[in-house]
Write a structure and sequence with these properties.
The chain contains nine helices and 13 strands. It is an alpha/beta fold. It has one domain (about 5-220, about 250-255): Vaccinia Virus protein VP39 (Rossmann fold, 3-Layer(aba) Sandwich), CATH 3.40.50. The strands form four sheets. The protein has a seven-stranded mixed β-sheet with strand order 3-2-1-4-5-13-8, sandwiched between helices. The protein binds S-adenosylmethionine. S-adenosylmethionine (SAM) binds near residues 77, 104, 122 and 128. Pfam families: Methyltransf_11.
């Protein structure tokens, strides 16, 4: 199965929808709004003058927000539509980011540049079959002492919705709409994999990264699925049998 072509077609379709959505609110971004949330900003720290690689950057709002904060940014994404939109935004805003359209693992095999920071966030890992290759891409792209930051939706939330928590040998292949409010029943095929948190952590440790922080939170910054409730000033929550489900987790690690 050519999962990269299937997922690329889906993300190309989703990009068109996302660019028109209030969820991504591109006009506010153009007007100067930063798309980053407090949790990733805190874990990244100051990015002023740092060389930063953003993996699975979608159409580049976070990459360009980091650019506005003074980083020299490079974004990589599988979707050619997303990368075209990212390049368009970058030149419209007179920012100086580099964008590459590629599978992150294939990018990693060609890349010989080493970065101060590698960043990736929110809905990235389920598209990747092999976390050891993912972690190798990150480790090889980091300078010694460089920092890795991941902020991801918590897989316990997927478990509660009926998906596997632990990795299995086969992918989940489904038809699904996207997560923005304007999706309007437009479904496309997605090929995804489950990854437990321990598999993520172990993959990073095995490539020589030292985990400095691991954070879990019941508050998601995004209203991107059903049955979420908003808690003023904190974010979106969901309950299971009356108790809060972890919505997101974050890892900060340093390359030794
Ligand atoms: C949910 S989005 C990431 C969200 C992102 N933080 C944002 O700004 O909205 C997932 C992204 O992963 C990309 N993607 C999926 N599989 C990929 C792969 N194998 N290599 C590179 N990018 C991939 C998709 O094209 C999509 O843009």
């Amino acid at each position: 199965m050519d999962y990269l072509s299937i997922n690329k077609a889906t993300w190309d379709k989703r990009t068109d929808i996302h660019l028109e959505s209030s969820f991504y609110d591109v006009q506010s971004f153009i007007n100067g709004k930063c798309s980053l949330n407090p949790i990733e900003k805190e874990l990244l720290g100051s990015v002023e003058s740092l060389d930063l690689l953003h993996l699975q950057c979608h159409f580049g709002q976070d990459t360009l927000s980091l650019n506005r904060l003074g980083a020299k940014t490079t974004g990589v994404d599988l979707s050619s539509k997303a990368i075209a939109a990212a390049n368009h935004l970058s030149s419209k805003l007179s920012l100086d980011a580099n964008f590459f359209c590629d599978d992150i693992v294939q990018f990693g095999e060609k890349n010989d540049k080493q970065f101060d920071v590698v960043y990736t966030s929110y809905g990235v890992l389920c598209w990747l079959p092999d976390l050891s290759q993912w972690a190798k891409t990150i480790s090889n792209a980091l300078k010694s002492g460089g920092k890795f930051v991941l902020v991801e939706f918590h897989p316990i939330n997927d478990l509660v919705q009926g998906y596997d928590y632990f990795e299995k040998s086969s992918a989940d292949i489904e038809k699904e709409g996207t997560y923005t409010e304007n999706c309007d029943g437009k479904e496309s095929t997605i090929v995804t994999w489950s990854h437990s948190v321990s598999d993520v952590i172990q993959a990073l440790i095995k490539t020589g990264l030292e985990i400095k922080q691991y954070i879990e939170s019941p508050y998601s910054p995004y209203d991107c699925e059903q049955n979420l409730q908003y808690v003023d000033g904190k974010g979106f929550v969901k309950y299971h049998k009356g108790n809060l489900i972890p919505q997101i987790y974050a890892i900060q690690a340093i390359k030794k």
